[in-house]
User: Fold these one by one.
Assistant:
Number 1:
Amino acid sequence: MTTPQHPFWLNLGFLLNHPVGYSHEFPFDLPQIQIPDDLDLRHFRGLVTVGRTPQGLLVQGTFQADLDLECARCLTTYEHTLHWEMTELYAFRNRSTSESDLVLPKDARIDLQPFIREDALLAVPITPICKPGCKGLCQVCGADLNTTECGHQAQLDKSSPFSALKNLLEK
Ligand SMILES: [Zn+2]
Ligand SMILES: [Zn+2]
């Protein structure tokens, strides 16, 4: 139902021979996929369920994929796992369709790639953190505090005008 070159094209024509309520699952498992122009995903896994409704074909998907991000605290490149979902209705042309509706093409072939690209990018965190509790970089010498004890942090804590406040808050 899918081709390796265009894994996100789905041929849905066969669904039209089935009654309302029928659904079909399309599993995805791609070790590596580049989504033009610049989105490189690894371990792309997903399940798309296409169901026939009176109004059209309802496409529901859940996806996950890995990509490299730079930690906003320690600036290390790390592998981040994205999770996202999609729901789109491809309306039948002969029903009353509003302007905003996606319309199922005559050949019933649809391309999920634009949705995958957009939703994957939306799932990328604005402030990526490599792991919970990442200590970040030393503000004095720039050392990665996850791997180095440069000692500056202890000094900063003592001399910081906020340390008194911090002590108060911790009480
Ligand atoms: Zn980090
Ligand atoms: Zn330091």
Number 2:
Amino acid sequence: MRRRAIYPIFLPHAGCLHRCIFCAQVLTSACTTPPDPASTLAAISASLPPGGNGELAFYGGSFTLLAELEQERWLEVGARLLAAGQISALRISTRPDAVTPAIARRLAAAGVATVELGCQSFDPEVLRRAGRGHSAAAAAQALPLLRAEGIAVGLHLMPGLPGADAGEALHSLQVALALQPDFLRIHPTIVLRGTALAKLYESGEYTPLSLSAAVQLGATMLRRARAANIPIIRFGLMANENLDRGTAVVDGPYHPAFGQLIRSRLWFERISLLAERGGRSFRLHPADLADVFGQRRSNFIELNSRYGPLTYECSETLPRETIESAGVFYSLFSEKD
Ligand code: SF4
């Protein structure tokens, strides 16, 4: 299913009651000057044609903890664009403990179709050490309130926080999947300049996941989410100049195409399994070929060196995320078959 376009408006740290130890919204959103509703409305009105099916998204803070008047000013921007037919819905991000029945009703009445909840972990100790200030149960309380108003709910998870390991990441994923969200976003923890986490890192009290460990963990999480039929709509922070030039990143598994590394890892494991059983020629959808070969053809080179020359044939008639070997189709996501 084709996803609707998202037009993000970043409101860095808007409504935040305090700073979580990992968070530096100005760096991750590359937004140094907070936008104001009037100029935002003018800019978007001028750039979006009527008949748009996208969503205007308020990201970068805890929208529902903004002063009510401030929320109304932003929701009014959305209302004007909705009335003009330039977007079809609104989306916000907030904390899981910042949703009440009244808030859920107000959001739905304003045209908010999707709420993204920053859960980060479902381990109470990991949440405490990250300075989140909400309980592991908060998302389970917020989700039905939003659903009751017809609002779709996405959950965010952050593997690799202080005190967390792969077991924590998979446990938090399991809890998240059991809540049956509409989607997940998974951002491995990055040490960003100027954060409390950077101080812990510099004092030797925190070590982030390596890129290869984060990719392997992400691959397992993606398999499990697919098995549960819950989409992961994004892996890793959205690339921007601060992150790509390295000025914002002290350490951690940042990669501008982190999601592709994960898909390539799954293809590597899938094809290795088939090659170990004697498979040497494969057929697949052409749109999967870049992930199959991997960045800088790393999979292609490594698989050839392990299993001898492998051949790949593409056909648009084949389903995506599936590979055919000796007339049998295999899903990218199954661990063994
Ligand atoms: S993670 Fe969310 S609640 Fe925490 S400081 Fe950042 S924007 Fe605020």
